[in-house]
Specification:
single chain, 62 residues, mainly beta, 4-stranded antiparallel β-sheet, 1 helix, 4 strands, elongated
Amino acid sequence: MVAIADGLATVEIAPTVGGALASYRWQKNGHSVDWLRPAGPSALDSRSANVRFMPSETTSTR
């Protein structure tokens, strides 16, 4: 998992499933707001994470 943060927003990227976004959240004043439902390990294992940037081997490209 790769995390990129800028102080307010954090995005977690799962390179093993085609660069899918595993989570996207804001943190401000001690509170977190998930803008995407965080993908747990089972979602990443089944390749049903939120957004894929690269097609997976099992994805049709018609």
